[in-house]
Amino acid sequence: MARFSTFLAGAALLALPFSALAQGVLIGPAGGGTAAAGAALEVRSDTKGFLPPRLTYANRVGMTNAVAGMLVYQSDSPGGQPGAGYYYYTGGGWLPLQTQGDNLGNGVAGTNINLNGNKLVGSGGNVGLRIEGLGGGRGPDNNAVLDFTIGDKGVVLPRFNYQTRAALGTTPPQGLVFFNTDTNHLNVYDGTSWQEVSTTASSATEYTYTAPGVHTYVVPDGVTSVHLEVAGASGSNRLGQDLSGPGGLVSADVQVTPLSTLYLLVGGTDGSNGDPNGSGGLSLDTNTRTPASNPNGENGGGASEVRYVTSLPTPGSLPGRSTTQLVAGGGGGGGSFLPSTGGIRYANGGGGGFRVDRSTGNLVTQGQDGDNNPNAASYAGRGGTSTSGGRQGMGSGGNDGAAGLGGNANTTSQRISQGYGPGGGGGGYFGGGSGTYGAGGTNPGVGGGGGGASYAFSNARITNVVHQQGVNTGNGYIKLTVNP
Questions:
Q1: How would you classify residue 287: left for phi > 0, otherwise alpha for psi between -120 and 50, otherwise beta?
Q2: Is the whole-model pTM more than 0.85?
């Protein structure tokens, strides 16, 4: 049986219309002659084409025995993969068979175009390239290497910040350009240094920060001096009687270096300024320890601060106060409230910041003390100074101010139910002390919190310093002006 099958296979092969000569094999009509000289195999027909093996994409890439020169036709076009067409194996991988060389024609690309190290030129490199919307007709301008002819769209350049620019290295190519997202201006490398392209380069540029929390300002190229106006927040003023102490204001000119960073911390009336370690003192219920939990006492205002580092910002980081602080506007102290048989009593919080003594002309480097109810006991907190926190009042439930922090007022739930509400100290370079309360005797009372101290003293870097005490109501703010 095996011999009979072999005989049939041989007979079928002999029946094929081909001529087998020394130069090759011809497959074609009977009597078709010989294969072309130099061809090992020639397929000849006037009515039929050559049909190679047809494989799906998965079959083709899954072959484990492909050899260099193998040709197949991929029959499908799976999403995200090379489409249907002829592919040949190079020995190291599959490549599409370009039936018309690299002529892209006017068709639509089915996949990304990989130049594979080759150039994209116009007319052999003799003219430029033109990018246009549909319906355009002219060629590129004779003087342009790249001509955009689209009437209603622009060109978006690469966009990144100083941090990414620094990663480009110290010698980028001359003429490199990008849009700087830190300054919102174009940057161009002139072969020696980066240049900022700005229509306002010759005039002062002003930035105002009013939202409580942390902001960053990267000093642009060419900027060496800025003017800062820093105002601390007032106390929370939750009692509706304008009892909270206003925040202090300090202004100064500061010498800076390009690509250094200013951290701008804006104080809030709730005692915050973006520093997780706190700023203004809080009027707390000792049981809940939550901000603003005593309805009868106000929180001290958060200080506004400017801190400086000579490097680009690190995401998520905030430098500490002690070594980086340039300027601080003290927060105002919180007001206080006490109902009594003699009528409702209020006490104001102290104003934040420093002041000039009118009689001597000297700067008084202490925040304003808080006020007492009109009785003999001193329940009010003292203002912070340039060297120490303000002292708490002489009653119960108070805390001294500290470096950067106003003192918290701690009141028991029992005393809160009786109406006692001392005020928290204002935040600052050194915070104000909190008010306290006196619950016994014939003269019960409460006191307002002391104002926080400002900071900025003239030196080689900081000049033209001006202090004002208790001038800002509400959240703090920072105004930065680039000096021309």
A1: alpha
A2: no
